[in-house]
Amino acid sequence: PSWRRVGGAAAQAPSWRWLLAVGAFCTLASAVGVGARATYGAQTTADEPQYLLTALSVAEDGDLDIADELAARRWRAFHAAQLPEQTRPLPGRRRLSPHDPLLPLLLALPVALGGWVGAKLALAATAGVLGAMLLWTAVRRFGVAVPTAAVAVGVFGASAPLAVYGTQVYPELPAAVAVTIAIAAGTGPLRRPGIWLLAGAIVALPWLAVKYAPVAAVLAGVAVVRLWRADRRGAAAGFAAGLAAAGVVFLVLHQSTYGGWTPYAAGDHFVGGELTVVGSHPNFLGRSQRLAGLLVGRSFGIAAWQPAWLLAVPALAALARARPPGWLVLALPLTAGWLNATFVALTAQGYWFPGRQVVVVLPCAVLAVAWWADRLRAGRPLAALGALGVLAYGWLVVEASTGRLTVVVDFFRTANPLYRAWRRLLPDYASPDAWTWPLHGVWVVVLLAVAVWGWRAGRHSTVNSACMPSAKCTMSSSTMLQNRT
Question: Are 343 and 115 in contact (CB under 8 A)?
Fold first, then answer.
């Protein structure tokens, strides 16, 4: 079949039916969580009301100043409890939410039409866009068979944390879309439209949240190096200069709008300066536990809710060994995002659902797992393992929608027996006990062992790697298919 072809121009994109089906599935998976309560006193909490108030201000007043929305207590529609202050008075009695403005700009129309429900439905639709784009990229850019790619995207798109953040009012899902666009464009031929698309995705990331700047910088660096090595030095210089100019605009507009280099300058809780968002006295050695904890932590690890995320470890090791064209566009941003969540983020688990700090780079992991599962013919095992995470998410949504628990405060109290049994095997970094560090040591050994296994298995995938459209594949499609079998 055409979707089994391997190599550059021969690799066909999935049909619109596949894209529509996967996109609709991911949208529906997120949309069922619209009614889930964030806390017992509100449908939204923490930073979510701030984004919604700013979106209201953009829709009704055409600016970012939420002073009048705060005075009118407009947050009562989606936050029944008293709203914590996040803003400090600025010149002219302005009040600005200490968050970058692109998400409120994107949500202004949905909020104007449907309030907080409209915002959540818009983000659920974003989850569908993400799913369709991941399917297209896996098949077209990395030569993954359509059924395997659909399984990978489906199980991850219909489970935590991607499905959860499909209705949480945060910039995580739009940022994941931007990263996926950058991957799709960055592994393409990089003609003028592709370069503009890649640049737009990179520029959008810090405007969604300044914390995404390291991921944006890595994506930009990979593109510049690729253009330079292809002897397109003029294009590389122009691309770099354009991004540098965009960076200057970002800084100038933040100084004039927020009074600092970041939106944190407008916040009332960074008394030591906007850079204290990283922590007043950060313990980087202590934060190193997050390297494993972001994956296997009992309270904030993403594998606690979707065990299939564990497959990203051998998949990435195999990817690094096989080095198919475009592999760096997956490995380097994922590494940058993971290190940023480990050492730069103030906390791995705050007043939000687990995984928030790494959602932006999880598309890289989804594509790596899809590529790896396709090479091992492991679509069915992936579906079976991923089904546990889909079940855990569905169970949580039902409980949070019926008032038994919430998706922010006590999600870990779910009655799901599979989750409750599985979490006992995971180290609890939030409330360490006598088992925390022995379990931590065991999991470090396990993760290293599966990484070594993935590395060794990766050598068999070298000749099977997909080629980007700009690469020249010397083997015919039929020869590659014979090698794969």
Answer: no
Distance set, CA 13 to CA 146, 161, 225, 325 (Å): 9, 27, 27, 17
Question: Radius of gyration (Cα) for the chain, nearest Å?
Answer: 22
Q: Distance of CA 133 to CAs 130, 179, 351, Å?
A: 5, 11, 30
Q: Per-residue confidence at 379, pLDDT binned at 50, 70, 90?
A: confident
Distance (Å, rounded) from C-alpha 358 to C-alpha 206? 15
Residue 325, preceding bond cis, omega within 30 degrees?
Answer: no
Calpha distance 471→211 (Å, rounded)? 33
Query: Model-level pTM?
Result: 0.89
Q: Which residue has the higher pLDDT, 270 or 436?
A: 436
- Residues 6 or more apart whose Cβ sits within 8 Å of residue 273: none
Widest pairwise Cα distance in the chain: 71
- Spatial separation of the C-alpha atoms in residues 122 and 107, rounded to whole Å: 7
- Least Cα distance to 32 among 410, 431, 393, 296 occurs for 393
Residue (of 200, 227, 209, 222) closest to 47 by Cα position: 209
Reported as type and span, the H/E element at residue 189 is none
Beta-carbon contacts of 196 under 8 Å, excluding residues fewer than 6 positions away, are none
Instruction: Tell me how far CA of residue 382 lies from CA of 24, 62, 358, 449, 456, in angstroms.
Output: 21, 47, 21, 19, 20
Q: What is the C-alpha to C-alpha distance for residues 84 and 257, in angstroms, rounded to an integer?
A: 22
CA distance 364 to 225: 19
The DSSP symbol for 302 reads G
**Which tokens is 255 given?**
């100084």
Q: How far apart are CA 108 and CA 223, in angstroms?
A: 32
